[in-house]
Amino acid sequence: NPKKPLKIMISGAPASGKGTQCELITSKYDLVHVAAGDLLRAEVAAGSENGKQAKEYMEKGQLVPDKIVVMMVKDRLSQPDSNEKGWLLDGYPRSSSQATALQAFGFQPDLFILLEVPEEILVDRVVGRRLDPVTGRIYHLTYSPPETEEIAARLTQRFDDTEERVKLRLQTHNQNVESVLSLFEDITVKVDGSLPKEDVFAKIDSALSNLIEQKNTTMLAT
Ligand code: AP5
Asked: How far is the CA of 41 from the centre of ligand 1 (A)?
């Protein structure tokens, strides 16, 4: 029973729930989660030359230049695990040049998921977001509180998660989203990301099962 690995992109405004949905998607579908923001934060934490440069842009809520981001993502997608299991690309591409660069390397998604969330909800989500450095899990003080006192005590906040900075990140997102969307129109599924996370996942889950069915049918036909 040979399977074609899934190749998915997930996009949306800052704090629209990309990372949260990726946790749910990977636990069911076992795809390799490749998050551009996480790869960049790892470079920043490692203190590499790319990391130092990237941090300047991230602090201003601007896009990190292609010369850093494109190869970083391309290298991760080229690893054997991404190829074997399939991938879930989170927060990339954020511009048409990033999209074209990836296509030139032969990476073509099956599905482009766009999470739609009204702006007034986003700030609230960012300000209450906390991360568990031990498990990497995403929490929210109100919507997804930590399960135990022990976890609560070790939670951290991202350096760009202030109200002021999220507004800048949102501006950058709004400037670029249309140009990226127009390139993936025929494979885009728009999902209402303002619903509770389980309901958002139910929509994504059904889009993914349809896709798998479709892929299997085309395989039998060829
Ligand atoms: P990145 O790390 O990608 O940040 P972002 O796009 O701003 O998105 P977030 O990670 O903030 O949010 P999310 O959508 O994952 O939401 P989450 O699930 O955590 O990028 C950071 C920076 O890196 C950029 O500004 C840029 O500088 C740079 N960068 C990244 N990619 C780049 C690229 N391709 N090119 C150039 N530069 C790049 O959820 C948020 C909160 O809400 C959590 O607390 C969560 O618990 C809660 N929540 C989630 N879903 C729900 C729900 N349904 N209901 C209630 N609460 C919810």
From this structure: 12
94 among known catalytic residues? yes
Contact 213, 3 (CB under 8 A): no
| Tens digits of residue pLDDT in 144-190 | 999 999 999 999 999 999 999 999 999 999 999 999 999 999 999 99
Task: Verify whether residue 137 is a known catalytic residue.
Answer: no
- Domains defined along the chain, listed by start: 6-205 (3.40.50.300)
Q: Kindly report the protein residue whose alpha carbon is nearest to atom 23 of ligand 1.
A: 37
166 Cα to the center of ligand 1, angstroms: 10
Cα of 17 from ligand 1 centre, angstroms: 6
Number of H helices, E strands in the chain: 10, 7
ipTM of the complex: 0.97
Q: CA quadruple 144, 91, 181, 178: dihedral positive or negative?
A: positive
> pLDDT tens digit string along 183-208?
999 999 999 999 999 999 999 999 99
Distance CA 222, CA 217 (A): 9
- Whether 28 is a known active-site residue: answer no
Of 85, 158, 197, 215, which one is the catalytic site residue?
A: 158
Percent over 90 (pLDDT), the chain: 93
